[in-house]
Amino acid sequence: MDRIERTQEKFKELFGGEPTKNEGTDPEFMRILQRFIFGEVCYVGSLDNRMRELITITVLAVNQTLPQLKAHVGACLNVGLTPLEIRETIYQCAPFIGFPKTLNAISAMNEVFAAKGIALPLESAETISEATRYEKGLAIQSAIYGEEIAERYQWLPGGFAVEIPKWLTELCFADFCTRKGLDEKTRELLTVVMLAAMGGTEVQVRSHIFGAIKVGNTAEEIVCALAHALPYMGVPRVFNALNCAKEILIKGE
Question: How far is CA 240 from CA 60, 173, 195, 217, 236, in A?
């Protein structure tokens, strides 16, 4: 198949329709966009449609491109992702992009769910209690990243030397990473993409690429995830992510 035929095939898989021909005010731009994304990018690398769509909605949530997010939430459902998997992908953006932007993404997602007749709220995915929150979060954090964060911020004044590392443990790793719906490998891969999409986070991108490999992602899967995100976050941020972790990706460990 050539890329025009591949675009038609992929567009139907994801959206159940046909790509743009000469419709709308900017058909030439849409042809460039669709043929590159759906005729080229979607066919390179090992990741399947399900993982690619989770990557896509992650970047769209980071960028707050909500009309496109709604379209791809629909595509997620079309390729067999569950509402729970979709919701957890959006929820876990919160510690990185902040609660207000995450709420915007949740609202867009829920519009699609409501239109599809999916009852809200979805089932609970919580697995921890207030009593076990710190312990469960630390178990995940220390297994992947160790406990050096607490030591690194001992210089902070007052109670912040204790509270800020504790917030990282309890919010990122306990409140979100302990939830049902996504496995550890998927969460770490999506975190790499999320950080790359934000820009200016190369220190964290490098750390989380190391973590993603540690929990079972291959270097090829990480590069594929970043490459798939390229049309949505732009070339410079993908190159920044690849360059900052070049040595880790070459070693694959």
Answer: 19, 26, 11, 20, 6
